[in-house]
Amino acid sequence: MNKVPTLGNPQNTIEVLNKYKFVFQKKFGQNFLIDTHVLDKIIQAANITKDDFVVEIGPGIGTMTQYLACAARGVAAIEIDKALIPILEDTLSAYDNVTIINQDVLKVDLRALAEEMNGGKPVKVVANLPYYITTPIIMGLFENHVPVESITVMVQKEVADRMQVGPGTKDYGALSLAVQYYAKPYIVANVPPNCFMPRPNVGSAVIRLTTHEESPVTVQDEKLMFSIIRASFNQRRKTLQNGLSHVPELAINKEMTVQVLKEMGLSETIRGEAMTLAQFAEFTDRVLALRA
Q1: Dihedral (CA of 215, 216, 217, 222) sign
Q2: With 7 labelled, which of 177, 201, 218, 258 sits at a CA distance of 20 to 30 A?
Q3: Contact indicator for 240, 261 with CB cutoff of 8 Å
Q4: CATH topology of domain 222-291
Q5: Residues of the chain with CATH 3.40.50.150
Q6: Within 10 A of 86 (CB to CB), how many other CB atoms are there?
Q7: Residue 101's Cα: distance from chain center in Å?
């Protein structure tokens, strides 16, 4: 079995890229980690043990995959770029507990994968995510109810901030509410651009989302609640009654919104950005009661 050099530093990364004449694809948002301290932090934050099965999204040349393979029982590494597959087969040849999947993660049935690879038990997701696709990937995991214990991801710093803030702050929005409905967010570390190759133009952060065993709020219609949340933040300077009345498919007119807000003891000119998750849940349930 070939002894594979440990990746995670600039020289070895450059060697591998040169060997395969690899060309970075802008459309895939590729930025490879070249800092072993950050890699160690991610593995620690994800709390990977030999009992764990890990799904890694976007393994790149296999840098973090090597670390995960050493720490976990098994790893499924999902990579969209077919040019990286021969590289991964090389850099991961010494690890017999890694399965490489050449697919777009948004088209992979992750529930079926968890069932097959981990007997349906919750998996841990670890990723250095391309920034343009962070939200669809994270929301896809939650909304499709993939059995996930935690998601530890490298994202744009601004997005990490958005995931953990509360009402009344400029970063608070639909993503904050959705993430906090499903999980407890915790920023593990801020990561400067020089830890990547090529260097991104923005700062990054590692954030861990620990899935709630029980959601902090109960709501009768989760889908309707998130439609209301999205509509209320689409034009965040609008009042809730104006924001919702501009989305015909919600069928919530201004009168209905005002009536529900009164029942809740809230101002009829309140904006979505001032409302908590619990208030959005209560608002949704009261709208349903009015329609009944």
Answers
A1: negative
A2: 201
A3: yes
A4: Helicase, Ruva Protein; domain 3 (1.10.8)
A5: 10-211
A6: 11
A7: 19
Nearest residue to 280 (alpha-carbon basis) of 214, 233, 210, 213: 233
Averaged pLDDT in 10-residue chunks for the chain of 292 residues:
61 91 81 91 94 96 95 96 95 96 95 93 93 88 93 95 94 95 96 93 95 94 95 90 93 96 97 97 97 86
Q: Whole-angstrom Cα distance, residue 154 to residue 187?
A: 10
Distance (Å, rounded) from C-alpha 284 to C-alpha 292? 13
- Please list, residue by residue across 199-213, b when 16 or more beta carbons sit within 10 angstroms of its beta carbon and e when fewer do: ebeeebbbbbbbbee
DSSP annotation string for 107-164: GS-HHHHHHHHHTTPPEEEEEE--GGGHHHHHHHHHHTT--EEEEEEEEEHHHHHHHH
